[in-house]
Amino acid sequence: MSMIRVVWGSASGPTAMASYDAALAEAGVENYNLVSVSSVIPAGVEVEAVGTAPDLGPAGERLTVVEARATTAEPGRVSAALAWAQSIDHGPGLFYETAGEMDSDDVERRVREGLAAGQDLRDWQFGDPRIAVESAPAESGTHTTALVLAVYGESTPLL
Q1: Residue 59 DSSP symbol
Q2: In angstroms, what is the C-alpha Rg of the chain?
Q3: Which keywords, in A-to-Z order, does the entry hold (predicted)?
Q4: Boundaries of every domain in the chain
Q5: Are 95 and 126 contacting, i.e. CB atoms less than 8 angstroms apart?
Q6: For position 73, what pLDDT does the model report?
Q7: What's the confidence (pLDDT) of residue 2?
């Protein structure tokens, strides 16, 4: 694994799944089977915020991710945030995710608090945190999804 890429997207659609699929397309990962993992960054791995993923392999393969995602059918706003910090000695790091029907300032505050709590549980010396936030207005009569994903490496075959 050479890199973890942070990608994001938001979209609306006629169903919750349609809005989620469209948000994945905006992030460039709609053609993969996502497998969620908890939030530990392996030692020695670079994390880069790229917005939209490059080609990560053939369609239908497995892609390992940490996912912050919110979907709503109510009018208002939906937001997702992913924060991360890595050890200053190229050791391991952490991702923390938060999402919900809230504005971007609130989701950013909450994800910062979560990351700080996770850092307090560990004896690692962390560098400065980084944060990616995606937020979108939600209108009545449609579903809206906002998401931020940390994508670990490239895809791998399922079978």
Answers
A1: T
A2: 16
A3: Decarboxylase, Lyase, Pyruvate
A4: 3-156
A5: no
A6: 96
A7: 79
User: Alpha-carbon distance 92 to 85, whole Å?
Assistant: 9
Average pLDDT over residues 58-75: 97
User: What are residue 72's phi and psi, to 5 degrees?
Assistant: -140, 155
Which CATH architecture does the domain made up of 3-156 adopt?
A: 3-Layer(bba) Sandwich (3.50)
Number of residues that make up the chain: 159
Q: Residue 156 corresponds to which amino acid?
A: T
Q: Would you say 96 and 150 are in contact if contact means Cβ atoms under 8 Å apart?
A: no
Find the DSSP H helices in the chain: 16-27, 104-120
User: Rounded to an integer, what distance in angstroms lies between the CA atom of residue 127 and that of residue 14?
Assistant: 42
Sequential DSSP letters for 42-59: PTT-EEEEEES----SST
Distance CA 95, CA 83 (A): 6
pLDDT in tens, 68-97: 999 999 999 999 999 999 999 889 999 999
In the block, tokens 């208002």 appear at 76
